[in-house]
Amino acid sequence: MEKEFVDFSSTIQHSWENFLGQLPAILLAILVFIAGIFAIKLFSKVVTKFIDEKSKDSIVTDFLVNIVSFILTIFLIIVCLGILGYGNITDKILAGTALTTFIVGFALKDIGENFLAGILMAFRRPFRIGDLIEVQGMRGRVKKMSLRETNIKTLDGKDVFIPNSIILKNPLENFTYNQLLRSEFFINVDYSEDLEKVMKDILYIINSFEEVEKNPHASVYVQEIDGEKIKLRGAYWFKTTDVNAPGNSLKSEILFKVIHYIKKQDIKIEENSPNPDDERKTVKE
């Protein structure tokens, strides 16, 4: 028992002497690590400000800054391990990085796919923050983007998080990309009506709205003739900076005024023409 106690005491003393011998290196490594973390954060802020001024794109900035910060942090850890005398360990870590990356990448294939899609979209993507987009039947305004997913707010107020790989691999509709959108409606008029006058009056009503663009100009024309029924098509353009896409409120106001005119002039309309009460029930924009 006494011998075991002596051996234990000797081990403790030896460890304490080794610790005291390594203490300057430990203190230096801690000091270097703290100073390095501070320098990386300061460098990240400077780089973020510089890239923001050049690209005006938050997702590109975040991607580049995160990559640079990660590389610098790994380098800092390797330097600190070298100060402590663990250079051989760092060599083994670096040697096993490729194998580890392959195993982790295979296990997290879907996450990796979304991450790579996010990298591609960071430099080239068909939408901006605030754009109204639709992909795979999901429509909403882009609220936030990251390297893994895109967050959209639907027109009825729901938050939808779409993996970037889905956006990259599927057709995407952007209703606000060039800030100009066309809308249209149809009215079935009886064959006996003064068609030319009706078309001119409807066109005048459409153009009476300030939100309707004059160039490209609005139009009203005959879509088709079916027996006693003539199908008129009204089309107009508006800027998404003036009217929230998809422009349901503007369309409702135009149709309400058109049908008010039709009733006032006692114009005969056929079935399937728009009902002003239905058009008033628009989707929340």
From TrEMBL:
Keywords: Cell membrane, Membrane, Transmembrane, Transmembrane helix. It holds the Pfam family MS_channel_2nd. InterPro entries: LSM_dom_sf, MS_channel_C, MSC_TM_helix, MscS_archaea/bacteria_type, MscS_beta-dom_sf, MscS_channel_2nd, MscS_channel_C_sf, MscS_channel_TM-2. GO terms for molecular function: mechanosensitive monoatomic ion channel activity. One of its GO terms (cellular component) is plasma membrane. The keyword Transmembrane applies. The keyword Signal does not apply. It is found in: Cell membrane. The chain crosses the membrane at residues 20-43, 63-87. Residues 113-176 form the Mechanosensitive ion channel MscS domain. Residues 186-269 form the Mechanosensitive ion channel MscS C-terminal domain. It is a multi-pass membrane protein. Belongs to the MscS (TC 1.A.23) family. This is Mechanosensitive ion channel family protein. The lineage of its organism: Bacteria, Pseudomonadati, Bacteroidota, Flavobacteriia, Flavobacteriales.
